[in-house]
Design brief:
By secondary structure, the chain is mainly α. It has helices spanning 11-20, 25-41, 50-68, 81-96, 102-120, 131-134, 141-171, 179-197, 207-234, and strands at residues 70-71, 74-75. It has a two-stranded antiparallel sheet with strand order 1-2. The longest helix is centred in the middle third of the chain and has 31 residues, at 141-171.
Length: 242
């Protein structure tokens, strides 16, 4: 039952539904998906760690998404921010009382990256906000737009590869296959982020971005897996004495 505690992070989002309507559904799907994946995929030795981590991670995630989701002049976040911050504070307080191992830190870093993806996936991360900076290069409008597009795709690949790596480093402990759970978490993030962008007036959700994000994550994870396997196979046998 304690593995389901992170679902409490849905409270601020459900409260926000009264003012946001269907616009908050991608966020609800993301937080619920992450909470359920934590409940199912976290190894048994970390089961006591799930409630604190889930509240620490998903409380701020719901707040970041809510704050960044302003549409048509409606502040849909105003009822949910206080509840999200309270949930985050409780999770953080409990988390700080527990010893953090190396693989725990990897999952904490993954949480921070999801906050960043969530923030820049909102209105503040639109391509229009990048035009003033790139216009300083003195390029033509078409060249400027092409440079912005290329930069955004590089950012996509970098962020999601880093996110997948953090998940992978965590799931290396206690699991024989760390690629599948790591890719699952990353894919949930990519799908919900693009779904939300498709509902924003100044953004455009793209299936191709989901393919790019998950594809880059898969290639990077597969390389990590092959590198780990080659390192393991090259290690000296325990039967060989120095």
């Amino acid at each position: 039952m304690k593995r389901l505690v992170p679902l409490l992070a849905l409270v601020p989002l459900i409260v926000s539904y009264g003012t946001s309507g269907n616009f908050v559904l991608p966020t609800i799907a993301l937080v619920a998906g992450f909470a359920l994946l934590l409940a199912v995929l976290v190894p048994d030795q970390d089961s006591d760690w799930v409630p604190a981590l889930g509240l620490f991670w998903l409380g701020p995630l719901s707040v970041v998404w809510s704050v960044s989701e302003r549409r048509e002049g409606r502040d849909i976040w105003q009822y949910g921010v206080a509840a999200g911050l309270l949930i985050a504070a409780i999770g953080t307080a409990v988390l700080l009382r527990r010893p953090l191992l190396k693989h725990h830190i990897a999952l904490v870093l993954a949480a921070v990256l999801t906050w960043c993806v969530s923030y820049f996936g909102g209105s503040s991360g639109s391509a229009d906000n990048m035009k003033p900076l790139y216009s300083l290069f003195g390029l033509s409008p078409d060249a400027t737009w092409a440079l912005i597009l290329m930069t955004r795709k590089v950012i996509h690949v970098t962020f999601y590869s880093a996110l997948a790596t953090c998940f992978y480093q965590y799931f290396l402990v206690g699991r024989r296959n760390a690629v599948i759970p790591s890719l699952t978490f990353t894919l949930v993030m990519a799908c919900c982020d693009e779904w939300r962008q498709s509902m924003m007036p100044n953004r455009a959700g793209s299936v191709w971005d989901v393919i790019l994000d998950s594809g880059a994550a898969f290639i990077w994870l597969w390389w990590c897996f092959l590198r780990k396997r080659s390192t393991s196979s090259g290690a000296p046998s325990s039967d060989v004495h120095a």
